User: Fold this.
Amino acid sequence: AMNMCGMAKEYDDAPSEEKNPWIVSISIIREGGVEKCKGAVLTPHFILTAAHCFNIDDQAHQIKVETNDRKRYKVINVISHPNYNVNAKKPKIAEFYDYDIALVEIGDMNKKPGGKEEKIEFSSKVRPICIPCTEGTTRALRKKVAQTTCDEHEATLLKWGLVEAMFITQEDNQLTRKDVTIKTGDQKPVCNRDALKAPLYADVKDVNEVVTDRFLCTGGTEPHVNAFTCKGDSGGPLVINHRQRYIQVGVISWGVTNLCLNNIRQPFAKAESRDFHTNLFKVLPWLESKLKEDGLGFL
Ligand SMILES: CO[C@H]1CCN(Cc2c(C)cc(C)c3[nH]ccc23)[C@H](CO)C1
Assistant:
């Protein structure tokens, strides 16, 4: 049962690390400074994050992964989705975030034969989150392993309309949950349309040029005020709490407005503060091809 995904401490004054044990911090050390992203633990060797956190010339040794127990792990590989290319629509569209998703592989490049294998040690502060269309998620949804399909996962998790979800951010050294609603069905176009309020996309005619089918849309203030992401939240998981089991349905990719300077969040969201997340249901073959080797059972 140790490997049951998406389980966390639920009691009110549990430490925030034990309430959100799948969150990891990713630091990319560069000449000009350190870029910070978030990620989620999927298996002992793989973390899921955003591809835009990395530059083409980042080497593995520049990337540091730290779990909630402050342990730091060596990165042996970053596997970005093959269709991700931030420059794909230049010069018209300066930044293009389609397929903004990556797997960070933990291990020991100079593993001595018989040496201790480097892998993420699970504990009360470090545990994997569930991802769609895996056996672990079928169990987390309390459905029968034999009959449950990936489509049923999607129908259960991404119902039509407003879907309650959350992301995790770091505030005063605490992991804080931020509530959002994923706009599906008739709410989706209304949410997507605000992408054109981003300065970089002011001249874009058709919103579908920048908000592709790979995105989930959250944020804004109608009908409820949603939390908004900061740049530093990039790569973190968009999570649905299904009867106290946590399932990741998206990876935080980009936001329309930068309501955070030096990661200090402004107090109030705006109608156009929308955020876009890479939808895991849209990249399953890629996820499976990398993760089945590390024991994740896909449907
Ligand atoms: C289309 O143009 C915009 C793309 C996103 N950009 C920054 C950004 C990134 C990269 C990632 C996450 C998670 C963000 N959350 C809020 C802003 C933000 C800026 C917006 O400020 C320009």
